Amino acid sequence: MERLDKRETVCCGASVACESCAVRPLAVCGALPTDALARLARMTHPRRLGPGATLIEEGEPALDVFTVVEGMLKLYKLMPDGRRQITGFMIPGDFVGLSVGEAYIYSAEAVMPTTACRFRRNFFHGMMEDYPDLETRLLGIVSTELAAAQGQMLLLGRKTAKERLASFLLSLAGRLEVAAGDRLALPMTRSDIADFLGLTIETVSRTFTVLRKEGLLARVDKAGVVVADIDALARAAGD
Amino acid sequence: MERLDKRETVCCGASVACESCAVRPLAVCGALPTDALARLARMTHPRRLGPGATLIEEGEPALDVFTVVEGMLKLYKLMPDGRRQITGFMIPGDFVGLSVGEAYIYSAEAVMPTTACRFRRNFFHGMMEDYPDLETRLLGIVSTELAAAQGQMLLLGRKTAKERLASFLLSLAGRLEVAAGDRLALPMTRSDIADFLGLTIETVSRTFTVLRKEGLLARVDKAGVVVADIDALARAAGD
DNA sequence: CTTTCCGGTTGATCTGGGTCAATGAACGAC
DNA sequence: GTCGTTCATTGACCCAGATCAACCGGAAAG
Predict the structure, then answer these.
(1) pLDDT above 70 covers what percent of chain A?
(2) What is the pLDDT of residue B12?
């Protein structure tokens, strides 16, 4: 595989075929008719990001929006003293670049080699005017994200460490369509998981060990887990 | 004032004048032209709720959407064992009743006498088809809520008790447009504040005392506070 | 008036998860 | 191979906030 260094980003100038895009049915672009896809393809700028590369930064002018095509991004907010809260991990088909007003409200960084289609915000708004289904689709996507955010508030405000980790693994397995018994890849670090769950890396590590010793996870290593007992994991998640 | 008991709800059958609605400029209805307002007025069903009355319940079929006209609602999610996370307090102009799929994703309950305009979901979707600006406005509202939810994730995952309470008071004062030195009404109980901030009532109470003793708050009582030093409160909020 | 109730405050004590520290395992660089 | 680096795990100890408990004050009922 092509090697991408930290912070290196490659902007591919080659032509893009939205018509044959694998993630289109999942993504906001799935709302567009065939004749609009050519227009879309002319205006998109895919960006390739190596692990750790920054796509957008909180507070910067929000000039672009993105659709994740492959890989995974983490979205996060920082406090001045460095405390970090990861608000989500974005996978192929997900929409990134929401802003309220002029600036991005979170930073986005690749957790593994990642490709994202970039659109100018103004162009995207123009497309929404021309194709109302696009706006309807985006409303659905943002509503789904808001629902997920409210679930995460319950997790962060009221769940124990074990419930948090179990909820996280279940939710990720669901989104990535990994069945029980199969390996669930965890491309993010323990530090990322901790900052998503409102814990420390030590507690995340200890809690992985607990879940393994209790038999809910069959295998735990740096890069992934195997879910042994998905029902028990769901019970451990608390709701 | 008319007395409304807990759980009592009154559905007002009288005619409604959306044209002269005080919260319309704030609300989603503000996107509609004058001629659409008559149609809206014919189809809305204002509901009056006494303190503690339930407007919607998580998991119930999501048949209606609402705009808060006066008072305040709390939105919350429950775990089977009774742990509760309040995901937001909704004030006049706010939109309530988001669902993903068929069911409501949260419960909503009045914290004080409250009026909300009810619309059938199907009717509201029809209006969005006829008036695309309505959908655009709703997308903006949901995006703003998602941004607030991400801020709340940072609060719940990474902030101390003092930072949480300071953030909450600042945010509420901003939304209610209460200036420093004026009284900020807190119609919700300490238990509601605790369940919003991921704390216990004891910690909320102690933290109010700390903020008062440090001079950031001039007055603290059951029903409200007076912010003495808004800059210090902003510093205490952590970002 | 007294009583009960309910929400809030304060104090004493406990504990889940944080902090600090040591160790291990994987991976490039040389 | 041997460093150095980074990430993960584990153990020992600590603390912010939870829990348990006492008490207070206003409002409603009798």
Answers:
(1) 93
(2) 47
In B167-196, the residues whose Cβ lies within 8 Å of chain A are: 195
Q: Is the pLDDT assigned to residue B7 strictly greater than 60?
A: no
User: Could you check whether A9-155 and A159-237 share the same CATH topology?
Assistant: no
CATH number of A159-237: 1.10.10.10
Give the pLDDT confidence of A133-156 residue by residue, as tens digits.
Answer: 999 999 999 999 999 999 999 999
Q: Which fold has domain A9-155?
A: Jelly Rolls (2.60.120)
Protein CA at B25 to nucleotide C1' at D17, angstroms: 42
CB contact under 8 A, B145 and A146: yes
Q: How many Å apart are CA A13 and CA B201, to the nearest integer? A: 57
As a whole-number percent, the residues of chain B with pLDDT over 90 amount to 88
Bases of chain D below 7 A from a protein C-beta are 7-12, 16-21
The rounded distance, in Å, linking the Cα atoms of B19 and A179 is 54
Q: Is A158 in contact with B79 (Cβ distance < 8 A)?
A: yes
Burial tier of B127 (Cβ tally within 10 Å: 0-12, 13-18, 19+): buried
Cβ neighbours of A21 (radius 10 Å): 22
Going from N- to C-terminal start, the domains of chain B cover 9-155, 159-237
Mean pLDDT along residues B199-210:
98
Contact residues on chain A for B145, CB-CB shorter than 8 A = 146
